[in-house]
Amino acid sequence: READAVLKYLKEQCGAKKTGVVGFSWGGMAVHHLMLKNPQLAAGVSLYGRIIRDSEERYNLLNPTFFIFGEKDHTISFDQVTLLDEKLKQYCKVAYKIKVYPGQVHGFAQLKPEDMKPDDKPYIEEARKDMIDWIKMFV
Question: What homologous superfamily is domain 1-128 in, according to CATH?
Answer without folding.
Answer: Alpha/Beta hydrolase fold, catalytic domain (3.40.50.1820)
